[in-house]
Amino acid sequence: MVSDAKNLHMQLSSLPVALCNVTGNPPILVGGIDPDLSGSAPDAASPCHLMIRRQPQTFFIWSLFDHYPMPPEPILKQSTRILYPSEYRAIRSHLTFKDQLLLDGLLFSGMRGVEFARFLEHPDWYKASRHAIDLPKGSMLKKRAKQAERTVLLSNAGVQAIETLISYRKQNPEDLRPISRQSWSETLLRAARKAKDEGHLAGLKGIAPKMTRKTWSSWILATHGHREGSVSLSMGHDIRTMLRHYAGLGWPPEARQEIKQYTAGWGGE
Predict the structure, then answer these.
(1) In a domain, 70, yes or no
(2) Domain that holds residue 32
(3) Which of 38, 64, 90 finishes a domain?
(4) Taking the CB of the first residue and of the last residue of the chain, which one, N or C, has fewer CB atoms within 10 A?
């Protein structure tokens, strides 16, 4: 039987999808599932995947629409890649299940690597009722941190990612431990290289561990720019620095629509 962690993990997609309601309502864009729990990419020849989740009197079919003619031109900030949603999925599809959990947790929380490593050892910092992670004083191990402690707000995707991570860690306490920056960098580069060879990534420049935090800052500002103060506090950024580096990147309409699916629910919105 598939573990509870992997069942929950199936709700967090490696591909965007069009949601087709068989009752006849028009499709809307939402997150999807990755039916292959081993961490390999889904079968591209398959026209759709069936979603396990149900809603009252409604069944949903998840159809793939991630068919870009060519990968987007890379966005770089301070020599680090700001990922398009399609680039995130391309890299993720070449990671093992365990590394997918790490990537999702890092991206959708926007935490620094050292914060995330400490969170793995203290999953009780996650507050399910508030959809947030409370990072206590000293969790950052950064002398010049803007805040001694802070609350990390999560989107719906972030809640799924963190709860999947915690569930898996409880079942496999020795299997999901913090890894070094160098090891994680090598893991990301291997996955990115495979995605590039498949034509889903335009080069490897800027692929680095810091890209998840920078990407999430950019995504949140793209959809919740009206709450820049809350974004700044959640990310632990100086607001002026954050706006200078991550705001106004000019996301194409298609990318912005996909970003909205990942940031939906952030801060209760």
Answers:
(1) no
(2) 4-64
(3) 64
(4) N
| Number of domains within the chain | 2
For residue range 124-147, what is the model confidence (pLDDT) as tens digits?
999 999 999 999 987 765 555 556
Q: Give the span between the Cα atoms of 240 and 237, in whole angstroms.
A: 8
The mean per-residue pLDDT over the stretch 232-256 comes to 85
Partners of 17 in the beta sheet?
Answer: 30, 64
Same structural domain for residues 133 and 189? yes
Establish if 69 belongs to a structural domain: no
Same domain, 59 and 136: no
How do 17-21 and 132-135 pair as beta strands? unpaired
240, 115: one domain:
yes
- What pLDDT is stored for residue 145 in this prediction? 54
- What CATH number is given to the structural domain containing 193? 1.10.443.10
What is the tens place of the pLDDT at every residue in 82-124? Answer: 999 999 999 999 999 999 999 999 999 999 999 999 999 999 9
> Do residues 206 and 79 touch, judged by C-beta distance below 8 A?
yes
Looking at the fold, whether 118 and 218 belong to one and the same domain comes out as: yes
Does 253 lie in the same domain as 130?
yes
Instruction: Specify the pLDDT at position 146.
Output: 58
Query: According to DSSP H, which parts of the chain are helical?
Result: 4-9, 85-92, 97-109, 113-121, 156-171, 181-197, 211-224, 228-235, 239-246, 253-263
CA distances for 25 relative to 59, 61, 148, 235, angstroms: 11, 12, 48, 37
Taking only the tens place, the pLDDT of each residue in 212-242 is 999 999 999 999 989 888 988 999 878 788 7
The Cα 210–Cα 262 span in angstroms is 19
